[in-house]
Design goal:
two-stranded antiparallel sheet; MetI-like fold; four-stranded antiparallel beta sheet
Length: 379
C-alpha cells in the first residue's frame, strides 16, 4: 500500500505507524497519548498536578519548618525575599526584621531591614521527621543555617508559624481528600447508577428517588448537619475520614445519573446480549463489559469532581464545620483570614493558601479536560 492509496498521511490521525512502507495499527494507549500531548494546557495541568502531589507526599522535606513550630516574637511577620547571590557569589540569605511601634494602632510592626542578613542554605538540618513515616532524618530542602534566625518566605501567622510550611503540609490533606472522596463517589456512582440503568423497573425508581432527595437538599445545610454530628473530641484522623465520607455521600449522585443514562443506551447492544448469553453475572457485565465502553465520560466526571472535592473541603473548613486545628489544610489556614483586621494586617494569610487552591483546581480542570478528549481519540 502506497501513501497515495492511504487516505490520511498523519499517523496521529489514523492511529497507524509506518513500518517498511506499510502500516500497522497503533494501540489504544498510544492513540490516547498522541491526542493528550497535543493539548498543551492539559500537559501543563498534568505537570502542575504531579508537582502538587509530589510536594504533598514529601511535605516534611520541602517545608522549611514543622507546622507546629512557632515563634511568638515574630507574630504577623511579613514575607521575606530569598536572595540567592551576595556580592556576586552564590550565597543565599534573607533580610532580618526591625520592629516599629505604631502608637496610633497600639501594635508593633515588623519591617524587613536590608542591613540585616541571615544566611540560608539548601539541604540543611532542621527538626527531625520520618520520610513516609519510615526513614528518620532531619534534612530539609531549605532553611536558615543558624538555628533561631527568622525565615518566613510567605510571612507568619498570629502565632509566629511559617505560612509557607503550613501551606505545604496543608496540601497533603486538601489534595488527598479529593482523591479519597472521589474514590468513594466513583464506587457508589458506578454501582448504583449501573444497577439503576441495567435493571430498570422499581429498582431504578428507588435509586432515582434517592438521588433526587439528596440533590434537593441544600448543600451547606446538609454539610452543617452532617459535620455537627461529628463529636468534638474525635481524633483528627477520624475527622478527616468522616469529612471524606460526608463529601462522598453528596458527590456520587451526579456520576450515578451519567452512568444510568449510558447503561440505558448500552444494555440493548449486541456485546451485552452476548455476555448475558455466555452466562456472565450482572455485576460482571456491568464492570467488565459496559463500564469500559464509556471510560471517557467517567474520566471527565472524576477529574472534574476532584477539584470540586477540594473546594468543598476548603469551604467546610473555612466555615468552621470541617477540619479543625491541629489538622493542617488549606481551608483551616483560610480561617485565619476571616476578619478584616487579619487581612489588613497580614494579607498573605489569605493569598498564600488561596492561590494554592486556585492553581491546584485550575491544573486539575485542565488535566481533566485533556484526559476527557484523549480518552476518545477517534472523535
Amino acid at each position: 500500500m502506497t501513501e497515495a492509496q492511504f487516505p490520511i498521511n498523519t499517523p496521529e490521525a489514523v492511529g497507524a505507524i509506518k513500518v517498511d512502507h506499510g502500516y500497522v495499527a497503533a494501540s489504544q494507549r498510544k492513540l490516547i497519548w498522541w491526542k493528550f500531548r497535543k493539548h498543551r494546557l492539559a500537559m501543563l495541568g498534568g505537570i502542575v498536578t504531579f508537582m502538587f502531589y509530589f510536594v504533598a507526599l514529601f511535605a516534611e522535606f520541602f517545608a522549611p519548618s514543622a507546622p507546629d513550630q512557632y515563634a511568638s516574637n515574630y507574630t504577623y511577620a511579613p514575607p521575606q525575599t530569598l536572595h540567592l547571590f551576595n556580592d556576586g557569589k552564590f550565597s543565599p540569605y534573607v533580610n532580618g526584621y526591625t520592629i516599629e511601634i505604631d502608637y496610633n494602632a497600639g501594635r508593633r510592626n515588623f519591617v524587613v531591614d536590608p542591613e540585616i542578613q541571615h544566611p540560608v542554605g539548601f539541604f540543611v538540618k532542621g527538626s527531625p521527621y520520618k520520610i513516609l513515616g519510615l526513614i528518620e532524618t532531619n534534612i530539609r530542602l531549605l532553611g536558615p543555617i543558624n538555628e533561631g534566625d527568622p525565615m518566613y518566605l510567605m510571612g507568619a501567622d498570629r502565632l509566629g508559624q511559617d505560612v509557607l510550611s503550613r501551606t505545604i503540609y496543608g496540601s497533603r490533606i486538601s489534595m488527598t481528600i479529593g482523591l479519597v472522596g472521589v474514590t468513594f463517589s466513583l464506587f457508589f456512582g458506578i454501582l448504583l447508577g449501573g444497577i439503576s440503568g441495567y435493571f430498570g423497573g422499581w429498582i431504578d425508581n428507588v435509586i432515582q428517588r434517592l438521588i433526587e432527595f439528596l440533590q434537593s437538599i441544600p448543600s451547606i445545610p446538609l454539610w452543617i448537619g452532617l459535620a455537627a454530628a461529628i463529636p468534638v473530641d474525635v481524633p483528627p484522623l477520624y475527622v478527616y475520614f468522616l469529612i471524606t465520607v460526608i463529601l462522598s455521600v453528596i458527590g456520587w449522585t451526579g456520576l450515578a445519573r451519567v452512568v444510568r443514562g449510558k447503561f440505558y443506551a448500552l444494555k440493548t447492544e449486541d456485546f451485552v446480549k452476548a455476555a448475558r448469553l455466555d452466562g456472565c453475572s450482572s455485576l460482571r457485565i456491568i464492570f467488565h463489559h459496559m463500564v469500559p465502553s464509556f471510560t471517557s465520560h467517567i474520566i471527565a466526571v472524576v477529574t472534574l469532581a476532584i477539584p470540586g472535592m477540594i473546594i468543598a473541603e476548603t469551604s467546610l473548613s473555612f466555615l468552621g464545620i470541617g477540619l479543625r486545628p491541629p489538622i493542617n489544610s488549606w481551608g483551616v489556614l483560610l480561617q485565619e483570614a476571616q476578619n478584616i483586621r487579619s487581612i489588613s494586617t497580614a494579607p498573605w494569610l489569605l493569598f498564600v493558601p488561596g492561590i494554592a487552591v486556585v492553581i491546584s483546581v485550575l491544573a486539575l480542570n485542565f488535566l481533566g479536560d485533556g484526559l476527557r478528549d484523549a480518552a476518545d481519540p477517534y472523535t
